[in-house]
C-alpha cells in the first residue's frame, strides 16, 4: 500500500458511507469484496505499532456505516453545525471588503436567520446574495464599471434565502446529535 511505503501518511476518505455502509444479504458480490478488502487493508495499516499512517473518514451519515468499520474507527469526532458565533465569523470572512460589508445590526439579523445553515450553505448564500446587485443591472451590465455596482444589502440575503435553504433538515441534524451522544468520542 502506498500510504505505508510513504509514511508518515494520512488517508482521507470523504463520504466514507458511500462505500462502507452496512453490509446486507442482497448486496452484490463486488461490493462485498470491496468492503472486505478495505477492512483487511485497514487492519494492516492500523495494526502496525511503528506505523505513521492515519486513516480519517468523513460522513454525514454515520448511522449507515458498517459495524466493522465503526470498530476500526475508534475516535469518532462530531463536528456540529456552526453556532451563532461561528456563523458570525464565517459571514464576516465571506463579506470582507467595502462592497460586501453589512452594518452590524444587519449582520446580527443574518446570523440569527441562518441558524441551521452549514459552512457550505453560508458560502452558497453569500454567493447568491452577491449576485443580486449584478442581476439588477440587466443589459446594462456591459457598460457599468465595477465601482458603480451597489453594495450588498440585508434584503439581498433575504432574497437569497428563498433560493439557498439549509441543506440539512432539523430532524437529520437531531439524529446526528443523538448518534454522537451514543457513539461519538467527544
UniProtKB/TrEMBL annotation:
Pfam families: AAA (PF00004), AAA_lid_3 (PF17862)
GO biological process: microtubule cytoskeleton organization
Residue ranges annotated for the ATPase AAA-type core domain, each copy included: 5-81
Domain AAA ATPase AAA+ lid: 106-138
GO molecular function: ATP binding; isomerase activity
Cellular component GO terms held in the UniProt record: microtubule
Highest taxon of source: Eukaryota
InterPro entries xref list: AAA_lid_3, ATPase_AAA_core, ATPase_AAA_CS, MT-severing_AAA_ATPase, P-loop_NTPase
UniProt key word Nucleotide-binding: yes
Keywords, in A-Z order: ATP-binding, Isomerase, Microtubule, Nucleotide-binding
Family per record: Belongs to the AAA ATPase family.
Name this polypeptide is given: Uncharacterized protein
Organism of provenance: Solanum stoloniferum
Amino acid at each position: 500500500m502506498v500510504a505505508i511505503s510513504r509514511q508518515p501518511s494520512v488517508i482521507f476518505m470523504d463520504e466514507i458511507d458511500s462505500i462502507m455502509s452496512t453490509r446486507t444479504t442482497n448486496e452484490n458480490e463486488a461490493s462485498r469484496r470491496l468492503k472486505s478488502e478495505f477492512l483487511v487493508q485497514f487492519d494492516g495499516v492500523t495494526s502496525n505499532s511503528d506505523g505513521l499512517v492515519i486513516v480519517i473518514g468523513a460522513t454525514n451519515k454515520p448511522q449507515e456505516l458498517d459495524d466493522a468499520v465503526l470498530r476500526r474507527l475508534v475516535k469518532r469526532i462530531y463536528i456540529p453545525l456552526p453556532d451563532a458565533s461561528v456563523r458570525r465569523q464565517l459571514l464576516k470572512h465571506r463579506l470582507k471588503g467595502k462592497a460586501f460589508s453589512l452594518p452590524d445590526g444587519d449582520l446580527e439579523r443574518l446570523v440569527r436567520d441562518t441558524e441551521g445553515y452549514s459552512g457550505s450553505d453560508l458560502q452558497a448564500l453569500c454567493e447568491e446574495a452577491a449576485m443580486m446587485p449584478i442581476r439588477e443591472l440587466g443589459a446594462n451590465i456591459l457598460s457599468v464599471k465595477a465601482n458603480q455596482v451597489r453594495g450588498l444589502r440585508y434584503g439581498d440575503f433575504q432574497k437569497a434565502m428563498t433560493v439557498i435553504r439549509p441543506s440539512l433538515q432539523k430532524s437529520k441534524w437531531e439524529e446526528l446529535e443523538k448518534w454522537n451522544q451514543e457513539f461519538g468520542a467527544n
